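Why this split exists: single-chain examples teach little about how molecules sit against one another. For that reason, every record in the complexes split bundles all components of an assembly together and asks for one structure covering all of them. Below is a record exactly as it appears in the raw files.
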Amino acid sequence: MKFKTAGLLAAMATALGLATSAFAGTLVINTDMSDPAPKAAFEKVIEGFKAKHPDVEVKWNEFDHEGYKTSIRNFLTADPPDVAAWYAGNRMAPFVNAGLFEDVTDVWTANGLDEQLKSAASSMTIDGKKWGVPYTYYQWGIYYRVDIFEKNGIAVPKTWAELVAACAKLKEAGVQPIAIGSKALWPTGGWFDYMNLRVNGYEFHMDLTAGKVPYTDPKVKAVFDTWGELVKPGYFLENHAAYDWQEAVPFFVNGEAAMYLMGNFAVDLFLKGGLKPEQIGFMQFPEITPGIPMAEDAPTDTLHIPAGAKNKEDARKFLAYVASAEVQTEWNKTLGQLPVNSGATRPDDKFLSAGFEMLSKAYALAQFYDRDAPAEMAKAGMEGFQEFMVKPDNQDKILERLEKVRAKVYQ
Amino acid sequence: MTTAALPTAHAPRARRRRGPKWLAPALFLAPGVFMFVVYVIAPIFESIWISFYDWDGLGPMTFIGAANYVELFDDEAFYTALENNVVWLLLYMLAVPGGLFVALFLNQTVFGIRLVKSLFFFPFVISQVVVGLVFAWFYDPSFGILAMIFEAFGMKPIAILADEDYVTYGIIAAGLWPQTAYCMILYLTGLNAISPDQIEAGRLDGAKGWRMLWHVVLPQLRPATFIAVVVTVIGALRSFDLVSIMTDGGPYGSSRVLAFYMYEQALSEYGYRMGYGAAIAVVLFAIMMVYISFFITRMISNERGGR
């Protein structure tokens, strides 16, 4: 606790120090892009913005990715920057409802973003107003080992039955079918999202994350029953609760596990681990209930103007700048993700192309369980999913507990 | 400050005329009392006050009476945390006899014993975070030493930190490593202060081994034992860092302790229920209060007895 608090104070002190030395014409930006690729990409964006607006001085405060989630609450109230990075969907709702984010509908209308960023418009809208600008998104899906599939004569599963059969075959061949590291909980959210989207469809999933359906609903039970077909025979990586998602990657890279449901950011780690691009395949999560339109998880990362920003004028310029097609093209090329602007060119990469193709045909896009559901529900939910993935027999107990939380959270 | 410095500047006789008798001690105490009130007393009451509200730390606060407590006593996670705290308190006490044992063992004059003593003290010097990481690797089911030991005996390795039944014990074992070292150093200093006359007298009376330890050595180590118990209880109750580093409360919340649950509810990524977190803190405070009052009454009676 001590070192976390210290880090927080240091971060706050930095934010305060930098902000007080700011003068008119200075644009203060706080982001969580601490990983190498996102950091390099954002540096370029700032360079470009400076070239276009030489009169604006840009101060960029970069935070550690995890620490940012705590820091943002402090700096939004204590000493807001002019631009802050955050996430779309319900994840931004607490800040919007607390009046900490600025309504930027005007930026959207003035720059024709309603058309260009249409795919993300709904996830940026609360109460009919836009609260930020999306700059990147990425697909979720199952990454699999092409070589292992070939060796065992497995075709890419298109349906649930085929997926279960493929798992059985892999297990028999001594390969753990599915890698997952659930220590940080959220990877289980990806599984639940897809199970629910495929078993019950997008509308039901959204109703559930919006708290309109009880967790004890037979349709939710059906999700867990189906999920259990993979859990009970032990098709998921053993001891997954002991690993973070990165710690489960070596199993996939070493060929001890054959599939991994993840966001596209994982590919970077697969390749760094020594896999060749041709060894990795990407597949859409297979169909479960026939006829249900396929919706996908595609989390969107966003930039916002805090309500207490001092330089809102330049902040609006910056938001308009990052929303433009050219900037998003360049940015996502370094980032290795998909641009949101429909006029932007996506990076030339087989996984992103596959992802883009899948997402453009998608019936609808969900953000992610912990961005669609409110924080408290998400935490309890993902904990329940993890428990289910370890002790599937506790299913009823877990669902009752989640229902208790739901009744409390969405009053 | 200036008043406090005055007595030294004047003749002792002038001191009495400077003001009432209580003034000087009051002024000397003032900075300490001020800090104590601002950083200890006020937060206690503020926490109790917040625990009656529903508050996310940003928006308006809504008074909800005892609703946080009602919810708390109907919260499975709270009971898991409470139970773990009790387990922590009980098992952490092993550090006291453990430390005594090591201290007795190391309390001899052989060549290089100072180096050995410092090595034994080493785990207490390194950060709890490092201890947590080292033990997390030790327990790792795929490459940890523990897994290798299990495999050497032809057994399937147990993922200690991913198993709801073992996880708390696994973390406590990690915590005992530095805590035993701490108790050891307390006893080593205690052993230095033991009067050789009494040992000699005991030996003349034929005391040896256990009887010597129990009737002659241990009574003289009472102050050391008292401090060792105190720091161990405090260590057990604030066992936050190891839980956070090793498991983050998991798997599915089964290794939570009250301090961690409070942090999770009030300050973590998915938390921000300040009122609920405060309610947990108040319960933790109440538990500590039992122990603190025992400690304080005992200290006061000791001081009075010593006069």
